[in-house]
Amino acid sequence: MGTGPFPQHVIARKRDGAELDRGEIESFVRGATDGSWADYQLSALLMAVFLRGMTPRETAILTEAMMHSGTVADLSSVRLPKADKHSTGGVGDKVSIQLAPMVAACGVAVPMVSGRGLGHTGGTVDKLESIPGFRTGLSVSEFRAQLEKIGVALISQTAELAPADRKLYALRDVTATVESIPLICASILSKKLAEGIDVLVLDVKFGRGAFMKSKARAHELAVALTSVARAMGKPTRAVMTSMDEPLGHTVGNALEIAECVACLKGSGPVDLMEVTYALGEQMLVLTGTAKDPAAARVLLEKSVSSGAALAKFRELVAAQGGDPRVADDPAILPAAQIKVPVPSPTEGWVRGVDALGVALAALRLGAGRAKAEDGIDPAVGIAGLAKIGQHVAKGEPLCIVHANDKARVAEAQAILARTITVGSSEVAAAPLIGEIIG
Amino acid sequence: MGTGPFPQHVIARKRDGAELDRGEIESFVRGATDGSWADYQLSALLMAVFLRGMTPRETAILTEAMMHSGTVADLSSVRLPKADKHSTGGVGDKVSIQLAPMVAACGVAVPMVSGRGLGHTGGTVDKLESIPGFRTGLSVSEFRAQLEKIGVALISQTAELAPADRKLYALRDVTATVESIPLICASILSKKLAEGIDVLVLDVKFGRGAFMKSKARAHELAVALTSVARAMGKPTRAVMTSMDEPLGHTVGNALEIAECVACLKGSGPVDLMEVTYALGEQMLVLTGTAKDPAAARVLLEKSVSSGAALAKFRELVAAQGGDPRVADDPAILPAAQIKVPVPSPTEGWVRGVDALGVALAALRLGAGRAKAEDGIDPAVGIAGLAKIGQHVAKGEPLCIVHANDKARVAEAQAILARTITVGSSEVAAAPLIGEIIG
After folding, report:
1. How many CA atoms, within 13 angstroms, populate the side-chain half-sphere of residue B154?
2. 8 Å CB contact of A50 and B173
């Protein structure tokens, strides 16, 4: 601590638009990790970075310093090529849960560390925890042992990996410094590269239900992510995907797990499978497991039709203490007591299903957290969601509200009735998969 | 707290360049005062204000909210018109100490709250405390009682007045958010207007030894200060003064007090008296005590020649517990044990006396504080400082180092030898008093 630059000097340099050097950035990250910078100094620098930006060189140094703020998992004992996927987040985004076993069934290890949800609906970790007994809180050594054994592990963020990111992310959330491309890049990549992976595939979402509403900003983020990762020597590709309506037909933790099981059995919703395949293709291509996306697609489809992916999922659940019967009988998942449809007010075509509105309804039902310390009800949510372009009869359900608290049902219904709009003319759904970058 | 806007929403609005409304600014100031905003949220907003600026309307609301964060002294029981002076700070700036009794001797009450020095040399409060027994820590009610009785009081900042400024100033110092015109305005004016004054005169310094190095930035600050004060209904004028070389011949707490006594006896240095008169003139004119600066000058000169100002100083010192003999015999002040000259290396004319270099030498001798918690040696400093344009013989002292620690003498001498430059041609001193604004 005594030898680093003064925090206020580093802050002043970024404030004035200078490019920080390695020593300055490392002092900041060390300060976040060991407390040698006060929180008010960290947040002042975060705001200066938000408003002044960072060069690709600064972002790469920041990512590297954050990645090395804790353990970098050594997975050299895992003989398979190692790939992970990260999504910038969307409503109904349960892709990881079927993708990881599908890719693992194709011979690629998937060491995946995921987050909990905040603000919107539950995260991947919350969804997995709706499986009775499923443990996500593995240590790095348990994580490694499981990867050696079955080639896949889905765990929650641990204090061992990228602790500087945990600290900075919590501060950014309460100081209006979240939506900064260099800070997002460093946050995502520091965690992912600390997992010990060989290659990384990113799902960068744009649209009304995405973190980045505009396609241009999402594109900018995708370019930044892939170029920083490349500068750090990790083959990385970003797939841009649209997030206007939720992915699949369900939003809610146990409901989404049941939908993932359907995907693994070959009966998943088309849109959800399309995104799953697009990401899986890049994972197989980047690891050299398939020569091109078409060949990768064949392997992935075969992992589903052969039952190998479902078997890998069953293995994964059992390895992490969960009840493996979930792979055969989703009825063992927690279920809501109240199921009420939201009927279409008219005959016509579904024009819009605002992902944020659906997320808000799910949040009101108890499927997500408004604050980090809030609990989650794994059973509640929305199922049977109509898709944009679908024809509906008058009175036909646009979705089914799954609730445990009678008082919340009317509010959720009202939100959903506003959220799902039906028009009198045919509507074509916009393309889901956009540009591939990197 | 429960009813105000969320801190992160206020921060995000300023981050995006919006004009904050009264409720948002008041929430921020209340948050700084009662702790309902975390320090990291205060500092994130300070950085956003630094980089995005504030409109005059926002600055006025901020000033008002900070002024009302504590007591606003009610001096209605003081029958005289009430004027104060504030300087943006410079090296050897001891003006307040002779100015306050001179103006008070002319029938204007001077309720003055001053700061301690940080970084440079001692502040007015530190200088006054070198007078044996002198107390600066008066409560607001003691302050009022003394003003009623003798028309002048020089005290240190109390927790009662503008507590939000104390909090924010401390944060700004360690988060590189000091040099922001709206934040400086609100800081200065909230404290000064909480004193209960009728009019305010500002000494806005520019030059190498000033807080604002550039004349243009200092001018911008002077315009902002006077227009915000006017918007708050306080007649205010700013006098721009140059701060390239220190004011007067001394830098150091007791040494400066002795120089102030000389000023009050009519034998003060020309430059120091010129600034003192320029500020005093505006105080007398703004309060209606004199019809114009020339008439004010006559009154102020008379206060010195008649001995009335010196008598008022003696009263002031006695009222605040100090030894009033200081007005007659500066030898009662603490004196340094070591006095060593810095000789001129050559015959010629003094070309430059870098105020920052002199301040640094004084700091090394123990006259100032590097950190807020550091102690001060009242006796040490630099006396007999040559002035720019002065002719010196080879070997003639350019100044005298007053020290108590032998080990520090050589370092101070070396700094001063670099700091005071002598050239072979005549040099004219630049004008000291610049534009008057407001």
Report:
1. 32
2. no
Residue of A nearest to B180 (CA): A15
| Six token digits for residue B296 | 């004010």
The pLDDT tens digits for B152-184 are 999 998 889 999 999 999 899 899 999 899 999
- pTM higher than 0.95, yes or no? no
DSSP strand pairing (A236-242 vs A433-437): antiparallel
**∠A352-A355-A358 over CA atoms, to 5°?**
100
Pick among A6, A28, A40, A172 to test the B interface (most B CBs inside 10 A): A40
Q: Which residue in chain A has the smallest CA separation from B11?
A: A176
Nearest to A97 by CA among A273, A238, A226, A222: A273
Taking Cα atoms as reference points, which of A116, A197, A190 lies closest to residue A160? Answer: A190
The chain B residues in contact with chain A (CB within 8 A) are 7-9, 11-12, 15, 38-44, 46-48, 50-52, 171, 173-177
B7: chain A residues, CB-CB within 8 Å: 174
Tens-digit pLDDT profile for residues A384-431 = 999 999 999 999 999 999 999 999 999 999 999 999 999 999 998 889
- Burial class of residue B267 in the structure, from the number of CB atoms within 10 Å of its CB (0-12 exposed, 13-18 middle, 19+ buried): exposed
Q: Which residues of B are catalytic?
A: 86, 165, 172, 187, 191
CB pairs under 8 A between A and B: 82
Is 0.90 exceeded by the ipTM?
no
Say whether pLDDT at A117 is over 80.
no
Task: Report the alpha-carbon distance of residue B218 to residue B206 in Å, rounded.
Answer: 6
Return the residue matching tokens 């240590």: A139
Packing angle, helices A163-174 and A39-52, rounded to 10: 80
3-state secondary structure of B314: helix
Give the separation between CA B376 and CA B380, rounded to whole angstroms.
Answer: 9
List, in order, residues 6 or more apart from A196 with CB less than 8 Å away: A72, A73, A74, A75, A76, A82, A111
